[in-house]
Amino acid sequence: RPLSRRQALLLGGLGVAGTAAGGVGLVWTLAGRDAPVPGSSPVQPNQESSSAGQLQVELEAAPALVQLAGRQVSALAYNGSVPGPTLRLRAGDTLKIRLVNNLDQVTNLHLHGLHVSPEGNADNVFVPVEPGRAFDYEYRLPADHPPGVYWYHPHHHGTVADQLFAGLCGAIIVEDPVPVEASAERILVVTDTAVDSAGTISAVSPMERMMGREGGLVLVNGQSNPQFSARPGQRERWRIVNACVARYLRLRLDGQQLQLLGIDFGGPQDPEAVEELLLAPGNRADLLVTAQPGNAVLRAYRYNRGSMPGMMGPGFGQRAPQEVPDSIALATLQVSGEPAAPPAAAVAPQGLGDLRQSVVAAHRQLTMAMGMGMGGFTINGREFDAARTDTVVTAGSVEEWTIVNASPMDHPFHLHVWPMQVIEEGGREAGTPRWRDVVNVPANGRVKVRVAFEDFRGRSVYHCHILDHEDLGMMGVIDVR
Ligand code: C2O
Ligand code: CU
């Protein structure tokens, strides 16, 4: 297919580096900017799928004019679209990403939730990629990598929230070993942003950073309330990413039941019927939706995540409760036509294990706190410092962490690389093993998790996934040795 001028320029510029990096030559997939993948719906992001155990893609981070909810917006985008392409992988695959930084600022790339090495050229958040430079990431997924929906976004401390708010994110799917029967699979990347009258992304105030910014423009795949259609009785797979900087999504589908396969680590498990589902920033949901006649609207209902210390009353960001809409329509499923034959019922369950009986090598407490003014966003009393190591863990051990929230605002706690099993939440033991890579710790609450520090060693991070809080310092360094 013909290359655009920009693609040709990029190829020219990358030839030397590509060969030097490993002698592989130029076999990069240029993530499609023009033609949607055949068969994918126009409201779905483009997809790049691995074959023969490998996926090579180029992600160019650059300013781009994109259509967001029908408006022309000067955003930052991967390969010119918000969200960027969906990367589809299988356990055991090798993923090679050339990140080309055509922003005017430092960036880098983090594959959120993937169980891959934090070292070297893999998921290394300590590597800065300077403007005008490219960086070759190489990730190897273990053969038993959990299936599910993951995502990618920049991770250069101090700029993460700004870059995500401007549009830099995309979804990753790790395929199920045994596919779940569904008539359609929908990827729903939820972002929010704020755009001024000139079509530029609005700057945020210091107070909005401290609260965690919420943009008034809430989008699914860059669109406002996209419409899907299905026939009655059809079962669809919905895979939702909360890629908002700070907005919690309290989701309902018009009172219809959702069948929850999993949060974060999805994949086939015994589906659980739920009316409502809370996705903190960074969380993903893997759902089955059975189409009932009529229209079903997926809505995000308002959720009170608390306020700053010393501020009065319930907190909805900086807005009074009456200014916050009761709900926002995210997407609509239009159901009509001939009823479809019901799907084969079975979803082959695939457990992710259970650490409740394992020997715990260490108990730790991590306390997230915030104060007014500078220097108040801490974990165990300290702001992030890339040069310091806060937590040293023995490779191969299982640890139990109590995550304490010593503030009147919720904080979603995220640990890179190693999945967390929630042991205790809201003062009660979790009934079934629930795995997360982001676990919400409610205002003045606590959560207990267990983590098996398996497979990978090296330095990585844990942090609040209200990414303004992470940028302000609510992040610590872990070293697994
Ligand atoms: Cu989704 Cu450390 O991030
Ligand atoms: Cu926070």
UniProtKB/TrEMBL annotation:
Residues 70-177, 218-300, 374-480 form the Plastocyanin-like domain. Gene3D superfamilies: Cupredoxins - blue copper proteins. Keywords: Metal-binding, Oxidoreductase. Pfam families: Cu-oxidase, Cu-oxidase_2, Cu-oxidase_3. SUPFAM superfamilies: Cupredoxins (SSF49503). InterPro entries: Cu-oxidase-like_N, Cu-oxidase_2nd, Cu-oxidase_C, Cu-oxidase_fam, Cu_oxidase_Cu_BS, Cupredoxin, TAT_signal. One of its GO terms (molecular function) is oxidoreductase activity. Signal peptide: none annotated. This is Multicopper oxidase. It comes from Arthrobacter nitrophenolicus.
